[in-house]
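Morning, I've got a small favour to ask if you have a moment. It would help a lot if you went through both lines with me. I owe you a coffee for this, so here goes:
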Amino acid sequence: MRFTTRIAGALGAVAATLVLGAPLAAAAPGHHGPPSHHPAPEHAVFVQTDNPAGNAIIAYKRSPEGQLVQAGVYPTGGLGGALSGAKVDFLASQGGLAYDAADQLLYAVNAGSDTITVFGVDGTRLYRRQVISSGGDFPASVTVHDNRVYVLNARSGGSIQGFFEVAGHLIQVPFWNRGLELPTTTTEEEFTHTPGQVTFTPDGSRLVVTTKAATSSVDVFALDRFGRPGQPTVTQLPGAVPFAVEFDAAGHLLLSEAGTNSIASFTIEGNGALHEIANAPTGQAATCWIVRVGGTACFVRELLIDLP
């Protein structure tokens, strides 16, 4: 199961992303293969610092009781980034890390250097395999399905760029690129008007992109059999400021709406348009991030953790 959210850390209030990896067992010293099975598995937790001086992943070992013990710090080989106007969440996005459990790979955005880092995962240990251009300006979100990876570049009107994963390395596919053609942001608008997330639908047939206040819409890209995105179907949600996306067990899209401070659920129609099922206020301010745990959808306003 993949679990992503945003954390405001103690490293100069630099934003970070947290991913819970698949169950793991402690690897023996010198072991570099896949982790072995264990009757009472622990889990790996990966946190991205997004430090503009040098991005890094901090790995934690999580016990079945939820206790975290730091297990390592792994530089990404790239730089973190910060949007103008950001006070806590410098990327103003969801999904800065993506974990591929099947191939034991972790993908991280380096917004300050316009690159993506690919790590091999062995328990809580990471092995940097590749640093590759994101194909755009300020990568802020990344998603994976099977051997396809897409990144969302937030600046210069926004874009999505697709990659093909082969043997733990990414190959950029030029015709898997689409510009979002969002209004160019001013310095004061970057935090609120850049796109928020890219994610695959559960079956991998479509990509979903949120635009936040830039156009207050959700763009759905159908993918052809080669993985190439077509022109998006755009659902306008005036005033909603759609920020982040999750899916429930039935495949319904769950959307955090920062403008109305609510959570909404939708079906995605055959033509890619969204049809709202329900909408509920959160009773909070700045409702930005959402995650599903079992049958429960939880929104996150701000989660604090002290990073070393």
